[in-house]
């Protein structure tokens, strides 16, 4: 197909004639207009850079501004933190965006006016037909100038020099806020209403849903990895009572124990810390660190060891382990005495117990290798009566609240059976709960010692 060169020739002649006759470089209105556009383009750059500068401040930058004794730094901090961080952030953002848009609108309107005064493209016929050349040039040229010099370059500069821009623009932004305060407050309140509406429509994801998502997200993921992820998810909901060692299993010493007997016992037990009580375990006086006994390890006669006892940390049973971990870190201790609502001692909890909730069993050179349970097949397990329900739900991959409907105050599988059966069962008795059947394999007239737990095969696919 041949292109007729005639329209292009006439378009070029008309454009050259227009530029030569209408464009006057000596016109005062031209230079005043260019100056105003450059001035407002500079203001646009400053407001755009302010947005990046204020919202890219790191804690180190804030500390630097706080340490400075200058009006600019104080004003900047006030813009960020007054009256509260969230409200101040919205107010500052509204001020910057409002001023930036007002400046950009002025640039667009005045540049359009200047173009119309200097050029007249209304009678030019383009090679592709009759179009609004004026509009095309204004859109392309003005958009390019505003985006490049009013947005991109200033924001790149502000990211690298944020504190300088913050100091420079703190006072002007405060003045802009005070000048346009009614409009800015209206914008902030409108955004708050919209934010509340969005929050009301958000779906709150439960811990159980996240746990199920971990199970189905990656079927190839190792079991240990899933346990760690689930441990992290349940970390803030697990109580001290669920992970503590009960008082019946705690090795502790009387305050009246002779020093030589104390040394012998400490060597036999191989513990690094031993609770010390007076008269009974409900009156714990402190914790004895074995490393404090090392200077006396070769003593042949009695010595006073009471001054070696360190103060202990007492925590309630229902304290969450994430809060306990923070308290351990803050007070630099590794063991706490767990007390019940009446002030009696329920047991002890250690840093190791907390870490095991996330990473699983931690074995050291003194730990015995005997298992807390035995797995006979995919449906049958043998548990000690003292095994905690918290451990059982992890072993069987159940939800944390699986036993809540029947457990009452029970913490162990033996206690659960007592709550269901309402009395101490005899050897061979069977107790049913949901998809489980408990068979008593060993018991006496005081407690249940060993239980066989059987799962219904048809309901076991999701557990194993």
Main sheet makeup = 5 strands, antiparallel
Total domains, how many? 3
Range of strand content: 5-15%
- Record field, number of beta strands: 12
Instruction: Determine Rg (CA atoms, Å).
Output: 38 Å
Unreliable sequence segments: 7-23, 123-130
Structural class: alpha+beta
N-to-C CA distance: 74 Å
Cα shape: elongated
Mean pLDDT: 78
The number of helical elements comes to 17
Largest sheet: spatial strand order: 8-9-12-11-10
SSE order, as H and E?
Answer: HHHHHHHHHHHEEHEEEHEEHEEHHHEEE
Work out the helicity level.
40-55%
3D structure, described in words:
The protein has 17 helices and 12 strands. The strands form 3 sheets. A 5-stranded antiparallel β-sheet has the order 8-9-12-11-10, with helices on one face. It has a 4-stranded mixed β-sheet with strand order 1-7-6-5. A 3-stranded mixed β-sheet has the order 2-3-4, with no helix packed on it. The model is unreliable at 7-23 and 123-130 (pLDDT under 50). The longest helix has 34 residues, at 85-118. It has 464 residues and is of the alpha+beta class. The protein has 3 domains: 6-201, no CATH class; 229-359, CBS-domain (Roll), CATH 3.10.580.10; 373-459, Uridine Diphospho-n-acetylenolpyruvylglucosamine Reductase, domain 3. A hairpin with a 2-residue loop joins strand 10 (430-433) and strand 11.
């Amino acid at each position: 197909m041949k292109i007729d060169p005639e329209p292009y020739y006439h378009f070029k002649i008309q454009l050259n004639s227009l530029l030569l006759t209408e464009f006057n470089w000596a016109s005062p209105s031209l230079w005043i207009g260019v100056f105003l556009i450059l001035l407002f383009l500079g203001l646009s750059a400053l407001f755009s850079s302010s947005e990046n500068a204020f919202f890219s401040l790191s804690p180190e930058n804030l500390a630097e501004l706080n340490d400075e004794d200058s009006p600019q730094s104080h004003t900047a901090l006030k813009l960020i933190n007054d009256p509260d961080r969230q409200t101040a952030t919205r107010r500052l953002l509204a001020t910057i965006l409002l001023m930036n848009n007002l400046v950009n609108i002025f640039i667009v309107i005045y540049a359009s006016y200047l173009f119309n005064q200097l050029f007249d493209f209304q009678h030019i016929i383009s090679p592709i037909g009759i179009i609004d050349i004026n509009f095309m040039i204004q859109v392309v040229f003005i958009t390019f100038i505003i985006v490049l010099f009013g947005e991109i370059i200033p924001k790149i500069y502000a990211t690298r020099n944020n504190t300088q821009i913050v100091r420079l623009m703190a006072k002007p932004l405060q003045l802009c806020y005070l000048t346009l305060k009614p409009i800015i407050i209206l914008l902030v309140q409108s955004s708050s209403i919209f934010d509340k509406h969005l929050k009301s429509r958000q779906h709150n994801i439960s811990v159980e849903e996240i746990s199920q998502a971990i199970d189905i997200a990656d079927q190839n993921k190792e079991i240990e990895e899933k346990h760690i992820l689930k441990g992290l998810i349940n970390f803030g909901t697990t109580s001290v009572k669920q992970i503590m060692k009960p008082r019946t299993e705690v090795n502790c010493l009387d305050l009246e124990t002779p020093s030589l007997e104390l040394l012998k016992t400490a060597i036999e037990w191989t513990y690094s810390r031993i609770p010390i009580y007076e008269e009974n375990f409900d009156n714990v006086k402190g914790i004895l660190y074995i490393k404090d006994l090392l200077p006396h390890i070769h003593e042949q006669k009695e010595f006073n060891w009471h001054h070696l006892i360190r103060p202990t940390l007492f925590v309630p049973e229902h304290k969450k382990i994430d809060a306990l971990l923070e308290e351990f870190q803050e007070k630099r201790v590794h063991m706490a005495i767990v007390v019940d609502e009446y002030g009696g001692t329920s047991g002890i909890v250690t840093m190791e117990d907390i870490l095991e909730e996330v990473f699983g069993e931690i074995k050291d050179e003194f730990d015995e290798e005997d298992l807390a349970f035995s797995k006979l097949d995919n449906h049958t397990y043998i548990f000690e009566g003292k095994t905690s329900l918290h451990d059982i739900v992890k072993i069987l991959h159940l939800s944390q609240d699986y036993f809540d409907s029947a457990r009452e105050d029970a913490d162990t599988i033996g206690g659960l059976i007592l709550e269901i059966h309402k009395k101490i069962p005899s050897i061979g008795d069977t107790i049913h709960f949901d998809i489980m059947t408990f068979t008593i394999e060993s018991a006496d007239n005081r407690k249940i010692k060993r239980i066989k737990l059987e799962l219904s095969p048809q309901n076991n696919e999701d557990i194993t």
